[in-house]
Amino acid sequence: MSLRYLTLPVTAFQQNCSIVWCDETLDAAVIDPGGDLPRVQDAVRQHGLTLKAIWLTHAHIDHAGGTGQLARELGLPIIGPHPGDQFWIDGLAQQSQMFGFPPAEPFTPTRWLADGDTVQIGRQTLAVRHCPGHTPGHVVFHSAAIQRAFVGDVLFAGGVGRSDFPGGDHATLINSITQRLWPMGDDTVFIPGHGPESTFGHERRSNPYVQGT
Fold this sequence. Notes:
Layout: E1 3-10, E2 15-22, E3 27-31, H1 37-46, E4 50-55, H2 61-64, H3 67-74, E5 78-79, H4 86-90, H5 92-99, E6 118-121, E7 124-130, E8 139-143, E9 148-152, E10 155-156, E11 159-160, H6 170-181, E12 189-192, E13 198-199, H7 200-206
Parallel strand pairs: 3-4, 4-5, 9-12
Antiparallel strand pairs: 1-2, 2-3, 6-7, 7-8, 8-9, 10-11, 12-13
Cofactor: Zn(2+)
Keywords: Hydrolase, Metal-binding, Zinc
Protein name: MBL fold metallo-hydrolase
C-alpha cells in the first residue's frame, strides 16, 4: 500500500492543488483547494476516490480560496494551517477583491496544526513541519514513505517564497528551508505551490537563494 497523488494547477495563479490518497482505502485529502472546484471534484471522481479532508499549507487566496465552499458542500474537516495564519483567513474576502478572485467563503479550521504533528489519510500518515517565512502559519506535509513533501510557497524549483507580504520574513523563510526541509533528505521530491517539482538536493546545489546552505 502506498500514498499516491495528483497535482492540478488551479486559478489564474496556476497554484498546484494536490489530491493525495491511500491506494488501499481510496480515501483522499485535497491540499490547498484555491479554486476551480469542479475540476478538482472531477479528478476525485475519475480516480474513484472518497474525499475525506482539506489540508492547508497556508491561507493565501490562491491556496485557500475554495476551502470554505468545498468544506460546506461536502462536509469536510479543514486541517491546518498553523494558527499564525489566522489573520490571512480573516482577510480572505479582502484578498478575493484585491486579486480578482471569486468571493471566498469564510471558514474556521477544524484543527490547527503545529510543528511535529501528523495527518492521516486512509492508512497513510504524513508528518507536519511548521515552516514560517512566507506566512507566519505556513506548514509543510512530508511523506517519508514515498519521499515526497508538499511545501506550498516555501520553496520552488529555482526560487523561494516571497517574504514581502504581511507577516513574511526572508531570514525566517531561509531558516525554515535549511532547518526543516533539508533534513528530509536530498532525494526527497517536493511539490511546490507553483511550477514544476524538484528535489531538495538539486535546490541545495543550484538554487541561487539557498545554494550551499
